[in-house]
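Slide 14.
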Amino acid sequence: MVWHIIGYTVAVLAGLAIGFFIARKYMMNYLKKNPPINEQMLRMMMMQMGMKPSQKKINQMMKAMENQQSK
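Slide 15: predicted structure.
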């Protein structure tokens, strides 16, 4: 009876550890393939939409995106 509880506990802990490392690896690969938007990408998107981006406008949009991500 005690060995079953110890076995289940070890299995759960091992599953959590393995799941953590798999999720970490997946997220690292995802961020490598799809980097978050930076100022250069934002400037190109604005130019493609026909806007002339000023540094002030880019800074405002970057700050708005950071605020949105933190919520």
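Speaker note: The mean pLDDT is 90.
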